[in-house]
Amino acid sequence: MSGPDRPRGRLSAGIDRLIRLSLYGGMGWVMAMMLLTTVDVSGRAFLSRPVTGSIELNRLMLAVFAVSGLAYTHREGANVRVTLLLDRLPLAARAILEVLSHLVSITIVGLLAWQSGVSGVEEIHAGTTTDALGIPIYPLYFLLAAGAFSLCLEMARQLLTALADFPVPGRQRGSGPAR
User: How far is it, in rounded angstroms, from Cα 72 to Cα 108?
Assistant: First the structure.
């Protein structure tokens, strides 16, 4: 492995670890949501005592779960893509559109990450909390920023792959730069 390839390999492995950690965190939140819902329903049915604020907690947990799987979903290609027109284009046009799509997506999600962080700071100063339990809202903004940032990292990795696989006359697709 040559020098320039080594850091990209470590960076890619680091992105994989970050995505995996986020995914496992999301799975943990789903387990907590299931446990809370089970306790709430059981308490309501058998003891006539539901868990106070369970709906509010479940809403917050659902937000955490949704954000934690963004990068993983993108990495696995599980997002919806309509390729009706794309499949009919020549290889070079598809490659150009793929690169442009990655650039636009990185820009939009990067703006989302940035503005979520800004909103989180604003919410710290505002002191906004939930209605029933008084849980601060700002951690959700920072979590959204972190989820969007990890999605940006994954999109950037896919952009680099698309650029490396870009069709160049005299080079086979996926072979990287000619030496």
Answer: 18
Which residues contact residue 138 at a Cβ distance below 8 angstroms, ignoring those fewer than 6 apart? 120, 121, 123, 124, 128
Q: Give residue 83's Cα distance to chain centre.
A: 22
Which residue bears the tokens 């896919």?
158
Spatial contact of 102 and 110, defined as CB atoms under 8 Å apart: no
On whether the CB atoms of residues 85 and 168 are closer than 8 A, the answer is no
| C-alpha closest to that of 158 among 26, 3, 15 | 15
pLDDT in tens, 27-42: 998 999 999 999 999 9
Question: Assign residue 174 a region: left if phi > 0, alpha if psi is -120 to 50, beta otherwise?
Answer: left
pTM for the full predicted model: 0.82
